[in-house]
Amino acid sequence: MTNFHRLYSFPQKEVADTVTDRIRFITHRGKQILVVDLSNCSTVEVEKIVRAVPEVVTTRPRASVLILSDFTGASFDQEAMRAMKESAVFDKPYIKKSAWVGTEHFPDVFSEDMMDFSRRQFPTFKTREEALTWLAKD
Question: Number of structural domains, the chain?
Fold first, then answer.
């Protein structure tokens, strides 16, 4: 590496690092909740992150995972939406409850298509706190 590169190259996160940083379990009111943080992601990042979710979810017992997906400021294209639908179908046996945040700009047809395709419900909330509280209830 030249001195120029040492002085002027800036470390950039690889997409793989972004994926692992954006899928994590947290504890809220004594419940483990998987947070899938898609906030401010590009279409490429959304697709990669969503495709990585089943690897995490399928390590848990069936019908046990509480999952919160935050779409605030995320970008979507057809591939990202296809990845979301495929992951939602694959994950279904492992999900107990799921919640979405940041979907106020989703077209209604997209949410309906997701529910029809995956045979799952995706309740939406205005804030993460509201979604987390709802997920932790029961």
Answer: 1
